[in-house]
User: Which sequence fits this backbone?
């Protein structure tokens, strides 16, 4: 392991060569939640040989690592807990994916889940089978929101929480790493670091990685049956959080598009032109959304995204992950 990653715990007698699927899960100050995530991986209905890597990204108390170590040390689940010493979302993912390649020489798929998510029992089998059936290199799946307050369930229709796609099949684009299956070939081919560290505290490193993978020729697909359920705290349904996330999505959209157009004629002008066009169209799109949904929160989403795109041109960056307690 490199200097930024250290081993915290590992299953005794682990047979790394036999592992076919590796599940990676970053964790930060969620010791109880990561145990629920691990339990959902243990409960998978599959004949594939599975290992799990938990990436602790809190280097002081390491409560997540301490909690997560027990199932591995007790051989309830094959795998390991590592500490990613460099703070940030992208750093944690990169540490886990690099460790998977270095430790498990024969795995075919790497699956990604977050520490606030619980996998459905057939998640691994559905995601891997879809990749095989559709000859896809990367498969995304739904992150079904589970709101702390049942009265907030109506928020699941908001674009911040809605899935990118609705039906299983090949797709042109994926956005989130919260529920992914990535073939080993992708990880062996894509340049390091996998996720750009510029996105460490803002998010969007996953969108950028997936965009680059698609441009590199890797096939993307969606598996609507491969579901994980994401706990959504009440904080994330407050107006200021929704607004900040919407603006952030706009910023990420600009940064990812700029990278995709890099080196082409008039790249920056084309990105700015598209941002301004979206800003001009946003009030009309908002009016249509309001008529369709009767929800002002949903209607204003395209306005905030367009504003975020333009604000990115002036260096605006909403690093929501800098203060995880407010996220």
Assistant:
């Amino acid at each position: 392991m490199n200097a930024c990653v250290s081993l915290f715990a590992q299953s005794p007698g682990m047979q790394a060569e036999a592992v076919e699927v590796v599940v990676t899960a970053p964790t930060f100050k969620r010791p109880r939640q990561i145990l629920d995530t691990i339990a959902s991986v243990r409960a998978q209905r599959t004949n594939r040989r599975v290992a799990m890597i938990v990436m602790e990204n809190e280097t002081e108390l390491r409560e997540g690592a301490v909690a997560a170590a027990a199932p591995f040390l007790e051989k309830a689940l094959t795998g390991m807990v590592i500490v990613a010493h460099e703070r940030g979302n992208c750093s944690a993912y990169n540490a886990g994916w690099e460790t998977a390649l270095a430790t498990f020489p024969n795995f075919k798929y790497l699956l990604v889940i977050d520490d606030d998510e619980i996998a459905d029992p057939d998640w691994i089998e559905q995601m891997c089978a879809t990749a095989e059936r559709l000859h896809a290199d990367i498969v995304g799946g739904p992150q079904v929101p589970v709101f702390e307050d049942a009265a907030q369930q109506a928020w699941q229709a908001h674009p911040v929480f809605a899935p990118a796609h609705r039906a299983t099949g090949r797709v042109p684009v994926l956005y989130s790493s919260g529920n992914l299956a990535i073939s080993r070939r992708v990880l062996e081919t894509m340049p390091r670091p996998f996720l750009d560290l510029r996105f460490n505290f803002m998010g969007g490193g996953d969108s950028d990685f997936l965009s680059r993978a698609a441009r590199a020729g890797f096939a993307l697909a969606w598996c609507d049956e491969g579901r994980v359920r994401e706990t959504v705290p009440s904080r994330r349904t407050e107006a200021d959080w929704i607004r900040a996330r919407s603006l952030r999505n706009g910023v990420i959209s600009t940064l990812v598009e700029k990278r995709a157009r890099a080196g082409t004629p008039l790249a920056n002008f084309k990105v700015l032109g598209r941002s301004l066009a979206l800003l001009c169209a946003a009030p009309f799109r908002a009016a249509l959304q309001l008529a369709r949904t009767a929800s002002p929160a949903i209607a204003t989403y395209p306005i905030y995204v367009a504003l975020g795109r333009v604000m990115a041109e002036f260096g605006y960056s909403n690093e929501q992950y800098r203060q995880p307690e407010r996220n």
